[in-house]
């Protein structure tokens, strides 16, 4: 798998050492077994050679007694030529041992000849010499056996020493070539853990640990480069995040200040100064485009110079409509993205301000139209009726018809009373206001004002949330409820009047005014009352459905349902 080691590896060196130790142990065992194999007959051979000496003395003794020793000859020769003694004639046997054994054989032939020639005297005379030759042979065999034992012990000692030496080098080699490099690698790993990537490792040869050390150093260098790159990227990202956080904080605070209070020139100047301080802008100016009017220039505290070189302009646009322009003079680079978002916030606020102004103007015009229509439908008709009665009065008085004149004067008096009453109702209707955007409290106050005008019990239940309605819807609901309650007070002759405002499961708003009076069928005068036109007008402004029905067994119910702004947008 890649690069080959130019020298033997650590594992192969340890393997060779183990093989060498195994070889030495096997060699020692083999030498010991061979030595023991060839030493087995030595003890018997020594015993047999010793018995030759005893047999030689016995035959000399029997000869001196005059006994026949011919029977002893075959036994002696059998012992002398025994297989154990013949082993001494091999090539591996020392030459001295082979020579002494040959001397014993030669002297035995002479001694045997003496016995066979029946010259026993010569045998006994030469017995000591023959026994001395046997003793020399026995001693040579003992020396040979002792030599083999010493050689075996020496071989085993040398082999054991060699094994110990090899084992010592085998143990020392891993400590130098494995343990020490591994300890250095552990130390380097701890340095890397401490983010110290500049490592220097000594050379450990061309083996596995050397390759591992070089790979480890290379890895440390690469990790150092990656770590430094990551640090740079983290610092860069942190700086960008900090910049983004500052930008968001600036835009958030700007949005808060723009929506916290009504838009004014003072507020715009403060925002321009904050933008200039945040972006190190030298001069900043807002040009506000007014509808059908001259542009309005708003500058920061530093003012606006006459020289317009190096001006960066950003237009305040929304819904394809321009509301102004932001001009900047700066010697420092500016964040165009931030400035564009800043101009977007200004455009939204200016758009909202113009929209509110237009809505206020439209509401004012609508209220004027309602007032004019109600005046036309009520007071104008009453005044027309009074004018007619006044004309009749003049004619009757001119003709001398006093009865008709008196009747006309009575009609004029009743018409004036009705007109005054209608005027009061209109003034009460158009003077209704809502404080702190609390519709429920406004309705309750209005009902408390109407309670002294009737003996009926007015009960009120309010179940709307503040965010269910828009601000423009409050006045319509309030005036519609007032007209319905006034109609019940004047025409129903009721004992109980119930007013409730609820949010239905469908999300629509339900307003209901009910009574237990005579019913709308009997109160026919209320059908054409000018207040019904007001209620229909208010219901249409709310995009709702207004129904007036009789209740069972008696009474009238005014029922209004209309969607909220969220439901209408959906």
User: How large is the count of helical segments?
Assistant: 14
Helix content: 55-70%
Alpha-beta content class: alpha+beta
Spans of at least 5 consecutive residues with low confidence: 1-7, 522-528
Short description:
The chain is an alpha+beta fold.
Task: Please give a structural write-up.
- β1 (283-288) and β2 (296-299) form a beta hairpin.
- The chain starts with 9 loop residues before the first helix and ends with a helix.
- The chain contains 14 helices and 9 strands.
- Strands 5-6-7-9-8 form a 5-stranded mixed β-sheet, with helices on one face.
- The chain is rod-shaped, with a radius of gyration of 68 Å.
- The chain folds into 3 domains: 10-187; 245-352, GAF domain (Beta-Lactamase); 437-570, 2-Layer Sandwich (Heat Shock Protein 90), CATH 3.30.565.
- With 570 residues, the chain is an alpha+beta fold.
- 66% of the residues lie in helices and 11% in strands.
List keywords for this structure.
single chain; alpha+beta; Beta-Lactamase; 570 residues; 14 helices
Strand and helix layout:
Elements: H1 10-65, H2 70-80, H3 83-86, H4 95-116, H5 120-125, H6 127-193, H7 208-260, H8 265-279, E1 283-288, E2 296-299, E3 311-318, E4 321-329, H9 336-399, H10 402-430, H11 439-450, E5 457-462, H12 471-492, E6 496-503, E7 509-515, H13 530-541, E8 545-550, E9 556-562, H14 565-569
Parallel strand pairs: 5-6
Antiparallel strand pairs: 1-2, 1-4, 3-4, 6-7, 7-9, 8-9
Helix pairs in contact: 1-2, 1-6, 4-6, 6-7, 7-8, 7-9, 9-10, 9-13, 11-12, 12-13
């Amino acid at each position: 798998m890649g690069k080959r080691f130019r020298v033997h590896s650590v594992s192969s060196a340890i393997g060779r050492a183990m093989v060498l130790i195994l070889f030495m142990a096997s060699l020692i065992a083999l030498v010991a077994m061979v030595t023991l194999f060839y030493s087995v007959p030595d003890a018997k051979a020594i015993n047999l050679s010793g018995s030759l000496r005893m047999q030689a003395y016995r035959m000399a003794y029997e000869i001196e007694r005059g006994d026949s020793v011919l029977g002893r000859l075959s036994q002696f020769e059998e012992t002398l030529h025994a297989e154990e003694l013949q082993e001494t004639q091999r090539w591996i046997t020392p030459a001295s041992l082979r020579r002494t054994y040959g001397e014993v054989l030669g002297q035995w032939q002479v001694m045997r000849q003496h016995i066979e020639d029946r010259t026993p005297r010569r045998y006994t005379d030469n017995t000591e010499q023959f026994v001395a030759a046997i003793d020399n042979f026995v001693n040579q065999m003992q020396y040979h056996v002792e030599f083999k034992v010493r050689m075996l012990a020496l071989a085993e000692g040398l082999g054991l020493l060699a094994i110990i030496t090899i084992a010592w080098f085998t143990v020392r080699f891993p400590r130098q070539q494995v343990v020490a490099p591994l300890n250095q690698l552990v130390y380097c790993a701890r340095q890397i853990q401490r983010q110290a990537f500049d490592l220097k490792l000594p050379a450990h040869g061309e083996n596995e640990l050397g390759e591992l050390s070089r790979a480890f150093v290379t890895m440390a260098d690469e990790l150092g480069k990656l770590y430094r790159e990551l640090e740079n990227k983290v610092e860069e990202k942190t700086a960008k995040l900090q910049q983004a956080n500052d930008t968001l904080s600036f835009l958030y605070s700007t949005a808060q200040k723009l929506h916290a209070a009504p838009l004014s020139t003072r507020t715009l100047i403060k925002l321009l100064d904050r933008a200039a301080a945040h972006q190190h802008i030298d001069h900043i100016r807002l040009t506000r485009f007014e509808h059908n009017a001259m542009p309005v220039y708003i500058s920061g505290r530093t003012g606006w110079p006459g020289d317009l070189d190096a001006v960066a302009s950003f237009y305040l646009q929304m819904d394809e409509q321009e509301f102004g322009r932001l001009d900047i003079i700066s010697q420092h680079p500016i964040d165009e993205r931030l400035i564009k978002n800043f101009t977007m916030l200004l455009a939204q606020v200016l758009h909202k301000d113009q929209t509110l102004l237009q809505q206020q103007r439209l509401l004012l015009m609508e209220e004027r139209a309602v007032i004019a229509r109600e005046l036309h439908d009520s007071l104008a008709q009453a005044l027309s009726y009074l004018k007619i009665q006044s004309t009749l009065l003049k004619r009757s008085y001119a003709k001398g018809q006093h009865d008709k004149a008196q009747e006309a004067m009575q009609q004029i008096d009743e018409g004036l009373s009705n007109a005054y009453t209608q005027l009061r109702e209109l003034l009460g209707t158009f003077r209704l206001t809502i404080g702190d955007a609390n519709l429920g409290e406004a309705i309750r106050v209005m009902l408390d004002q109407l309670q002294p005008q009737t003996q009926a019990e007015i009960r009120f239940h309010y179940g709307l949330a503040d965010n269910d309605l828009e601000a423009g819807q409050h006045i319509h609901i309030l005036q519609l409820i007032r007209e319905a309650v006034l109609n019940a007070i004047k025409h129903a002759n009721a004992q109980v009047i119930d007013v409730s405002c609820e949010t239905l499961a469908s999300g629509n708003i339900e307003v209901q005014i009910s009574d237990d009076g005579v019913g709308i069928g009997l109160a026919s005068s209320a059908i054409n009352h000018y207040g019904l036109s007001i209620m229909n007008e208010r219901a249409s402004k709310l995009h709702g459905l207004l129904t007036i029905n009789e209740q069972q067994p008696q009474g009238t119910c005014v029922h209004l349902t209309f969607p909220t702004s969220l439901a209408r947008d959906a």
